[in-house]
Structure formats: structure tokens, C-alpha cells
Design brief:
The chain is of the alpha+beta class. It has helices at residues 15-32, 70-75, 130-134, 177-183, 206-230, 232-235, 240-260, and strands at 2-11, 39-50, 53-63, 82-90, 93-99, 107-116, 137-141, 190-200. Helix 1 (15-32) runs parallel beside helix 7 (240-260).
Length: 271
């Protein structure tokens, strides 16, 4: 069984702004989720061009020994809790593939994202065939809804329902913020359509693990985009040249942070 879900995240920024904001926030979030031996290592970050598609290619390793539930730690052999993430960012389209050397083809997560200048009303933006699309569960994520945030994940300074941007004047986002934006076409807005396909084969664990992975993906998307909007004053004036310099610095920092600091960031070890 392959479990496919589409997550729709509406944001109060433009598609053009998001390109910079996403890359800035990925770098910052990587540092916040690295330490104590676990976290992220960036192996490759370079331009690519293939079959008429151009963008930025990244290859990262995620060390998850202390970030997964006990039932997975007990069953996984030494070294198996390391995953590889390869991403082809041909913005506004991005494709990410997550694999594991131990499980090979029995573990694949594919995340395909289209960034569109709308409020998340488009159906089947990824162009699946009709039969496949009928099986996809669509899950909207409201970044201003605190009830969608895990209790331990909540931070007041990363809450769009409280935050007001000094530089852009945007925020705070009320309960009906998306309806309000729809009435004023001049208000910046966009939607990230994330199609997540989870393929996991392990007899007796397949259904449980696939549901667990989707739960964590939704959690990650929610936390990340709340951070992105609340960090807007830090990235809204940056250029792509600024971002590339920041990425180079972050790549070096992560190596040091992972080995020297204590375990930190988002974890699912108690689930």
C-alpha cells in the first residue's frame, strides 16, 4: 500500500517572496534541529540542469537515532536511522526524494510541491490521473490555528496569530484571515501544494509507519511555515545572492553543531 496525501498551506506572502523566505527558513530550521549527534548534514548544494529543467540540487543526510519513536529504535539495526534527502528545486516546482540505504526501495518518501498564487482552491495541480487523484486525501493547514500545533512545539514568538511584521505590516492573522485576504486581491497570498507519497514495506509495521510519517510531515509543514511567516522581517529584504552565502555558512555550521551541542529540535521519540 502506498499512502498519498496533499497538504495545502496558504500563506500571506507572494510566490516570489516565498522563494527567498523558504530557503532562509530551511537554513535556520536546520540549525535549530541539529545537535547531540542528530540532525542534518549538507553534502551537496549546487545548480543543476536536466531534461529542460533548471534549478538547485541539494543532497542532505538526516541523522535520526534519537528523534524517532522507541518501537522504531528497537527494531532498526545500527546505522539504519539515517536517511538521505535529495531535492531538485526548480522553483516554483520542487521535487524531494527521501531514502534509506538499509531499506532501499522498501522506504521512499516523495514530496512534490507546486507554489501557486492562489488560496488553495485548485484541484489536482500535480496532474494525477483521475483514479489516482480519487484516492488522495487533501489536508489544509492553517498556520494561524494553534490547535494544529503540538503542545511541545508551540512558541509564542512563532505564532502568526500574535506576530505583526514591522517591515511589511502584515499580521497578526485572525481566525478568518484567509477569508479576509480573498476579499482584497491586492493582499499578498499564495499556496504551497505538497503532494506526499509514502512507500514503506515492512511486514507488520507498514500501515503504522506510513501513518506515523504522514503525521510527522504535517507537523513539520505546520511548524516550518509558522516560523517562515514570523521570520519575515529577517528575510524579506534578502536577495538570492544573500541566501547562497548564508547556505554556505550554514553547511559549515551544521557539521560543528551536530557534533558539539546537545540534542535539540523537533523529535518524535515519545510517540
Amino acid at each position: 500500500m502506498v499512502l498519498i496525501k496533499e497538504y495545502r498551506i496558504v500563506l500571506p506572502c507572494t510566490v516570489e517572496e516565498y522563494q527567498v523566505g523558504q530557503l532562509y527558513s530551511v537554513a535556520e530550521a536546520s540549525k535549530k534541529n541539529t545537535g547531540g549527534g542528530d540532525g542534518i548534514e549538507v553534502l551537496t548544494n549546487e545548480p543543476y540542469e536536466k531534461d529542460g529543467e533548471r534549478g538547485q540540487y541539494t543532497h542532505k543526510i538526516y541523522y535520526l537515532e534519537n528523534k524517532v519513536p522507541q518501537f522504531i529504535r528497537l527494531l532498526a539495526p545500527s546505522g539504519a536511522l539515517i536517511v538521505h534527502e535529495r531535492a531538485w528545486n526548480a522553483y516554483p516546482y520542487c521535487r524531494t526524494i527521501v531514502t534509506n540505504d538499509y531499506m532501499k526501495d522498501d522506504f521512499v518518501i516523495k514530496i512534490e510541491t507546486w507554489h501557486k498564487p492562489d488560496l488553495g482552491e485548485q484541484e489536482n495541480v500535480h496532474g494525477l490521473d483521475a483514479e489516482e487523484w480519487k484516492e488522495v486525501e487533501v489536508l489544509p493547514i492553517d498556520i494561524a490555528d494553534r490547535s494544529q500545533v503540538y503542545g511541545n512545539d508551540y512558541k509564542a514568538d512563532e505564532d502568526p496569530a500574535i506576530f505583526k511584521s514591522v517591515k511589511t505590516g502584515r499580521g497578526p492573522l485572525g481566525p478568518s484571515w484567509k477569508n479576509e485576504i480573498s476579499k482584497y486581491t491586492e493582499c499578498p497570498h499564495m499556496c504551497a501544494y505538497k503532494l506526499v507519497t509514502v512507500n514503506f514495506h515492512w511486514w507488520g509495521l507498514q500501515g503504522r509507519v506510513e501513518k506515523f510519517i504522514h503525521k510527522q510531515e504535517r507537523r513539520l509543514f505546520t511548524n516550518f511555515h509558522r516560523q517562515l511567516i514570523c521570520w519575515i522581517d529577517k528575510w524579506v529584504d534578502l536577495t538570492m545572492e544573500d541566501i547562497r552565502r548564508m547556505e554556505e555558512e550554514t553547511q559549515k555550521e551544521l557539521l560543528q553543531i551536530r557534533q558539539e551541542s546537545t540534542l535539540r529540535g523537533m523529535s518524535a521519540k515519545d510517540e
